[in-house]
Amino acid sequence: MDLELGGKVAFVTGASKGIGRAVAEQLAREGADVVITARTAEPLESAAKQITAATGSTIVPMAGDMSVAAEVQRCVDATLDRFGKIDILVTCAGSSPGGLLEDLTEDQWMSSLNLKFMGYVRSVRAVIPHMRARGEGSIVLVVGNDGLKPSYWEMTANPGPVNTDRWDTLEKAFARDKGVTQDRAHELATRSIPFGRICEPGEVAALVTFLASPRASFINGAHIPIDGAQRKAIMDQ
Fold first, then answer.
1. The model's pTM
2. With bands split at pLDDT 50, 70 and 90, how would you rate the model's confidence at 159?
């Protein structure tokens, strides 16, 4: 299926690794030019070179901190200066600490909210005026499944069970709070998913790319889980 993404310009946050990087590569494979952002320049530039070599699309690395409004606006303005438009916004930036309510500090809560929640708000606010002026555009917000399926040990917003560096950190936090080994934490996590495994970044990227495309033009305001029908209560021993 042609997703009609040739000539489109995408702006993807948190794209130096993990889900964001996979999304950027999948969009590029479908013919889009992609601006990728993250806080650290070196891995961002490395990702851009690798994706360009693999896809032939234009990938522009643009270091920026989505927890700072001026940084978000600078990156969006630079994208518009370079390409003249932004057709697609995909937000993936940010990670939050796993942990119990009584253990998470106020600084951890505020840091999580500032990047994971407000970072998304800032990105959307920066892009929407341009999309409204053009009368078109797609926005896909990649969020965790905790809003629909909360668990007591992931009290701040977190990505769902996806095989990234971030998931390793969450497994370690789960093991710490449950008083078990990380191998046992992994077993409990995968047991909560009928497929018996966690998701791969490319599986998320495939859905995001479709949702960002004109082929999904009548999907709007939807929250679509991609978690293998996970049942978090099963993670309790």
1. 0.88
2. very low
